[in-house]
Amino acid sequence: MASGVGGGSGEEAVRNKQVIFRDYVSGFPKESDMEVTTTTVKLKLPEGSNGILVKNLYLSCDPYMRIRMKRIEGPNVFSSFAPASPLSGLGVAKVVDSGHPEFKAGDLIWGTTRWEEYSLITEMEGLFKIQHTDVPLSYYTGILGMPGLTAFAGFHEVCSPKKGEYVFISAAAGAVGQLVGQFAKLMGCYVVGSAGSKEKVDLLKNKFGFDEAFNYKEESDLNAALKRYFPEGIDIYFENVGGKTLDAVILNMRAHGRIAVCGMISQYNLEQPEGVQNLMLLVYKRIRMEGFVVFDYYNIYPKFLDVVLPYIREGKIVYVEDIAEGLESGPAALVGLYSGRNVGKQVVAIARD
């Protein structure tokens, strides 16, 4: 885990700007649910620490962070953010000081850190050393980080795709969706995505190579829209939205179809989640609907890199980022995810080196 920072005596203290989570959120999150404060930090580990002190370079804004703004009780894959403490999430950082044998000063890493300029990381599980720096470092918040592995594992491991199958992706212009569509096209599938603006629809068709795409906000009848794009039905649905979209998709699934449930962003800000009415069709159509979390697939990260790095270098996959500059822009960038303000992967850049 990433925790507060300290240091030995005699070290000069430097500024450490932080984004503080004020308190648990109900309804739609607001920028005022967070505040930017400044403290100080010594750039030397506390005596005897086996952690690492890092300078954060890029922070990842991810939809699941809204879940952590609620008070979470009982077993859950996520834990709540601690009120009056910095937000935590995935990011790219540079090691400033290390008491751990696997890391040294100057190493670049990605994994869980805190929303501040400098962090002390004491939990090394899920921390990856960056070996390939011929691609933008910010990619390790996206295509080469958690969203990329999510897209890869969700599509290839959960969906078991076959060439020529019909694939539908919701929130298709986001950090994960844009990659799922490109993985599907590389396999020879027919791919359609939905998004929330004309700009994003154009991106899906003209940059990411989707066969078709539509703006769900312009469709009064999602069932009819899906029938228009999938007259023979859907084999694979990569689920990022939930609610009415999921209901309409189930109506249009083919026999033995697969649904990979990655997230349900339409439900995160609701006090009472929407129900799904068509679940009995899972029985009649023998549909497999499976939820998954990326942490279960961290063991295949080296295999993932072996596949995806050549795709990037050869231009077979492209990736779009929406980069907000400065830690103080973090709250607006994070809140903007839930209204679809971002175009592509939302990143907050704190420092370039």
TrEMBL record:
<dbReference type="InterPro" id="IPR036291">
    <property type="entry name" value="NAD(P)-bd_dom_sf"/>
</dbReference>
<dbReference type="InterPro" id="IPR045010">
    <property type="entry name" value="MDR_fam"/>
</dbReference>
<dbReference type="Pfam" id="PF00107">
    <property type="entry name" value="ADH_zinc_N"/>
</dbReference>
<dbReference type="InterPro" id="IPR020843">
    <property type="entry name" value="ER"/>
</dbReference>
<dbReference type="InterPro" id="IPR041694">
    <property type="entry name" value="ADH_N_2"/>
</dbReference>
<dbReference type="Pfam" id="PF16884">
    <property type="entry name" value="ADH_N_2"/>
</dbReference>
<feature type="domain" description="Enoyl reductase (ER)">
    <location>
        <begin position="32"/>
        <end position="348"/>
    </location>
</feature>
<keyword id="KW-0560">Oxidoreductase</keyword>
<dbReference type="InterPro" id="IPR011032">
    <property type="entry name" value="GroES-like_sf"/>
</dbReference>
<dbReference type="GO" id="GO:0032440">
    <property type="term" value="F:2-alkenal reductase [NAD(P)H] activity"/>
</dbReference>
<protein>
    <recommendedName>
        <fullName>Enoyl reductase (ER) domain-containing protein</fullName>
    </recommendedName>
</protein>
<dbReference type="InterPro" id="IPR013149">
    <property type="entry name" value="ADH-like_C"/>
</dbReference>
